[in-house]
């Protein structure tokens, strides 16, 4: 019965993941369509710099990889197909995540008055986050063990913990690793630390110099803090989801 519950839970998680991916890309395209006129008026004429490059990448890269991602994560594929692409699918998603964090870093650096210590501290944290992502991508992923019980499935990558196993006597008289996504949970923890560091820098600078801000600075603070808080909340939810089975 425990095994059946585990399998049902895994299949339900895959279904939720598929709906989530479709919803995420629909929102991405919808946001692009309704704000395209503002983007053409404000962003396109602006001179090229690091902020514009980061914005354009963060804006258009998710839409560029959408067909490949939806093909791999929403469709049903044979195991041999997924074995050849699941690392690529995971890798394709990470630039979107890192580009959003990079924009937050640039915002915080500019808001702090372009202070070098702030840039150094944020850069070290950002590079640490990128390093962990590369480590997880290169060594700590395996194909979802749901392929042991289904002939076709989504190409999902999970963290591999070989020391935690369950006996599947009904299926193969063998042991199959239970997917424990603690590696992805570590990524969420570091992302949350990075977001909190950005929030602290912005709040510290605001407390020290809030009387000198004009309408533009106040608007930036209001919108920037909203972005920081939302991203931190999402990362916190991801931590709970990925680490709930650890321990």
From TrEMBL:
The keyword Plastid does not apply. Residues 19-63 form the DUF6533 domain. Keywords: Membrane, Transmembrane, Transmembrane helix. The chain crosses the membrane at residues 16-33, 53-74, 86-106, 118-137, 180-203, 224-244. Pfam families: DUF6533. It comes from the Eukaryota. This is DUF6533 domain-containing protein. It comes from Lactarius akahatsu.
């Amino acid at each position: 019965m425990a095994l059946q519950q585990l399998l049902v839970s895994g299949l339900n998680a895959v279904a939720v993941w598929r709906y989530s991916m479709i919803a995420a890309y629909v929102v991405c395209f919808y946001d692009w369509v309704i704000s395209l006129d503002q983007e053409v008026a404000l962003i396109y004429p602006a001179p090229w710099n690091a902020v514009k490059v980061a914005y354009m990448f963060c804006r258009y890269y998710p839409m560029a990889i959408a067909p490949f991602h939806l093909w791999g994560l929403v469709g049903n594929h044979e195991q041999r197909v997924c074995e050849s692409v699941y690392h690529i699918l995971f890798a394709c998603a990470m630039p979107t995540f890192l580009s959003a964090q990079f924009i937050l870093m640039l915002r915080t650096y500019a808001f702090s008055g372009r202070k070098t210590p702030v840039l150094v501290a944020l850069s070290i944290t950002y590079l640490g986050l990128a390093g962990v992502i590369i480590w997880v991508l290169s060594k700590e992923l395996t194909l979802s063990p749901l392929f042991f019980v289904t002939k076709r499935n989504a190409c999902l990558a999970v963290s591999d913990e070989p020391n935690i196993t369950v006996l599947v006597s009904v299926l193969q008289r063998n042991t199959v690793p239970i997917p424990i996504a603690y590696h992805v949970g570590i990524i969420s923890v570091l992302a949350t630390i990075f977001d909190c560091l950005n929030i602290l820098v912005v709040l510290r600078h605001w407390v020290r110099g809030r009387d000198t801000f004009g309408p533009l600075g106040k608007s930036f603070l209001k919108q920037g803090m909203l972005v920081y808080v939302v991203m931190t909340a999402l990362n916190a939810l991801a931590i709970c989801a990925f680490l709930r089975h650890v321990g």
